[in-house]
Design a protein that fits this description.
It is a single chain. This protein is mainly beta. The protein has two domains: 192 residues, Pnp Oxidase, Chain A (Roll); 50 residues, no CATH class. The chain has two helices and 18 strands. The strands form six sheets. Strands 1, 2, 3, 6, 9, 10, 11 and 12 form an eight-stranded antiparallel sheet that branches. A two-stranded antiparallel ribbon has the order 4-5. Strand 4 and strand 5 form a beta hairpin.
């Protein structure tokens, strides 16, 4: 085991910025969200409650959370009007305060470090079943130095169920640990190709897709044994009773204990 080190250049990581916003609405193709300024993630819940008996803490309960956030943009895609409660009665004639449609959203945040700047990679965030609340709009008289006024929407999302994890509405794909071929295939779904329109796959579909194209597949047999399937450069048989797995999803927990998962 190596001694801990602090301040290594490659470990000085940070996240910054937001780009490649895409709006997904049922029965519509994915649409780029030009003018997206910021996405604030503010999950609700996950509070801890302590329970005591005879003066001792015997249980700490963590409540289930849900996704909340805020979008800020200088403009929104035309199809987002239905999510903001605006519908067209006739060509050029609109009504507000109407029932709001749910929507999906994807956007990227950049990953940087001290040596590569913001070129280290990025995270793709996926939001499911989101609803936008009423947004405030302020119109002011023009001056000699006019400024564009950003629009804001508070959003909340209904969690989706995916086998093996607690329900959630927020998923993240990290380009720094996802194989390039897998990442490219997922981005073709999210952003579209010359043959296929952009769409937001279901969370369960994405999970199955990642496992299907995963370079390392772990099958837990439930009896203390498992099977690891991959290429020779990831799973190497050292002798009849010893093998080595080299992969980002292998996490040391102790001198002889590891956590390993499909990735």
């Amino acid at each position: 085991m190596a001694r801990l080190k602090w301040g290594a250049i490659e470990d000085r990581r940070f996240e910054a910025g937001v780009d490649r916003g895409v709006l997904y609405i049922e029965n519509f193709d994915g649409e780029p969200w030009n003018g997206l300024v910021s996405v604030q993630e503010a999950p609700l819940g996950r509070e801890t409650t302590a329970y005591y008996f005879d003066g001792f803490n015997y249980l700490t309960h963590v409540s289930t959370g849900s996704f909340r956030g805020q979008l800020e943009a200088y403009s929104s895609p035309p199809s987002f009007d239905a999510c903001d409660g605006t519908i067209a009665i006739a060509n050029g004639f609109f009504a507000t305060e109407q029932p709001r449609k749910p929507f999906g959203l994807s956007y990227r945040t950049k990953i940087g470090d001290a040596s590569t700047g913001l070129e280290r990679g990025y995270k793709i965030h996926l939001i499911y079943n989101a609803y936008a609340s009423v947004s405030d709009k302020t119109y002011e008289t023009l001056t000699d130095d006019p400024e564009a006024t950003p629009l804001t929407w508070d959003i909340s999302a209904t969690s989706v169920r995916v086998p093996g994890i607690k329900p959630t509405a927020h998923f993240i794909i990290d380009s720094t640990v996802t194989y390039p071929e897998v990442l490219a295939a997922v981005e073709d779904i999210l952003y579209g190709t010359d043959e296929e329109a952009a769409r937001l796959p279901t969370a369960e579909e994405l999970q199955a897709f990642f496992k299907t194209v995963a370079y390392l597949i772990i099958d837990d047999h439930g009896d203390g044994t498992f099977t690891a399937t991959s290429t020779d450069d990831i799973v190497t048989q050292l002798d009849d009773d010893l093998f080595e797995i080299t992969y980002p999803s292998v996490i040391p927990l102790g001198d002889e204990t590891y956590e390993i998962s499909t990735l």
